[in-house]
Amino acid sequence: MRELPPTAGLPLRLTDLRPGRAALAAHMARWLGVEQLQLECSGTAAMVVALRAMQRLRPQRDEVVVPAWTCPLVALAIHRAGLKPRLCDLAPNHFDMDAALLAQICNERTLAIVPTHIAGRVADVQASLEVAHRHGAYVLEDAAQALGATQDGRSVGLLGDAGFFSLAVGKGLTLFEGGLLLARDTCLRDAFAASHDDTIHADAGMDWKRALELVGYTLAYRPSLLPLAYGRPLRKALAAHDPVAAVGDDFGPDIPLHTVSAWRQAVGARALPRLRPFLDTTRAQAVHRVARLRQIPGITVFDDAPGQRGAWPFLLLTLPDEAMRDSALETLWTAGLGVSRLFIHALPDYGYLRDIVADTPLPNARAFAARSLTITNSPWLDEATFETICQTLARAAGAGHAA
Ligand SMILES: *Cc1c(COP(=O)(O)O)cnc(C)c1O
């Protein structure tokens, strides 16, 4: 049995794990072509550090505007920073926020707007900038899924005022968990550094835990071992009708806030030279596969606009309705082919976020959650298997049309 991962993570090598120390933020800053980066223990931690800093600079503001369909950790990070998430519905059949709604939602309470580069696709940061700067708010880009993506040659994360990347499992380059924070101007950079010093502490126990997890990931991240590490828990959760657990969206309220050991940084620094070629390979594969998916009537697949060069961890697409999407997933989700869902719900529909996000009408976000699925862009997904996925999708979309 072989099992493909749901996203194209850069595989680590055993030699990456040899003893050593590095300052990863400096390596990554050079790699991204940015002046400065701040390393944090997760994307979520990066967001907590950034929002606390922003609030210290604009203390009368307490709301953070996020897309209603995004990673639940985003809502938990906002809550942890002592702020309130304000949800913006998506544009129809799109992952990005509805620009007209965004303009209505923002006001003098808005601390930050968080345009989100879902699936490595570059979101419309300009729309957020216009609204944010009209109201004196910041733009904090959520580039957790978009390390390496650019617009007009500039890295995402610096299109607005600030941004963060995730180095979690499944998001390209990984330290098992990690995050990178960047800001355009020195005032915010200094505030982020001060916020880090206040919020983040060394934790030897977490260093050991993450070190062991990183070794486990390095060993298990291959199609022959992923049935154990990923497939079995996935199928168990689906059999128990728990899709939230199946995609690993079942987060607790605890957000670890600690430093990243010099050894884990060294592991990332050793893998980093392989990241550009890996992103180029996955881009070439994605461009070709997006074109194939476009031939299937009823499927919407998300791509780069002119000037954008996104990252391609997986392909994000929608079917015409939930029944068709579910019919496609019925065979594909458990087949070990790297077909999955991204976020199961719009944020208010996660039970554990009930006290954190307000339940408002969010028709487009709920429709997107119900109609979307993802196909891994791992190089381990071969052409023939991709073609069988396409045929299953065509049947699912076509059957619905006939009915
Ligand atoms: C994963 C993710 C995060 C959180 O990053 P972690 O490194 O897992 O804490 C935030 N936003 C989005 C869109 C994500 O996919």
TrEMBL record:
Where N6-(pyridoxal phosphate)lysine occurs, residue numbers?
A: 171
Q: Does the keyword Translocase apply?
A: no
Show the active-site residues. Answer: 171
Q: Which GO terms describe its biological process?
A: polysaccharide biosynthetic process
Q: Which InterPro entries match?
A: DegT/StrS_aminotransferase (IPR000653), PyrdxlP-dep_Trfase (IPR015424), PyrdxlP-dep_Trfase_major (IPR015421), PyrdxlP-dep_Trfase_small (IPR015422)
Spell out the SUPFAM superfamilies in the cross-references: PLP-dependent transferases
Protein family membership: Belongs to the DegT/DnrJ/EryC1 family.
Name the UniProt record assigns to this protein: Nucleotide sugar aminotransferase
